[in-house]
Design goal:
Elements lengths: L1 H68 L2
Length: 71
């Protein structure tokens, strides 16, 4: 009976350490995902700004081209 109790205690300690490590790893994973989400948001905003700039450029270019072609 003594050996069984001792083995169960060892298993509980081992399980607790594993749970703590899992918790720490999960928190680290969440932080990494949050940083990636922020980077993706910045990248998307940058892409949207570039798209708008190109649209303005081509709109002006077409408008100016049309004024040159029309008498």
């Amino acid at each position: 009976l003594h050996r069984v109790d001792r083995r169960q205690r060892q298993m509980c300690i081992r399980d607790r350490d594993t749970e703590e490590e899992s918790h720490v790893q999960m928190k680290a994973d969440i932080e990494v995902m949050q940083m990636q989400a922020k980077e993706n948001k910045r990248s998307l905003a940058n892409t949207e700004a570039k798209r708008k700039a190109w649209n303005r450029f081509f709109s002006r270019f077409l408008r100016d081209s049309m004024t040159l072609l029309l008498p």
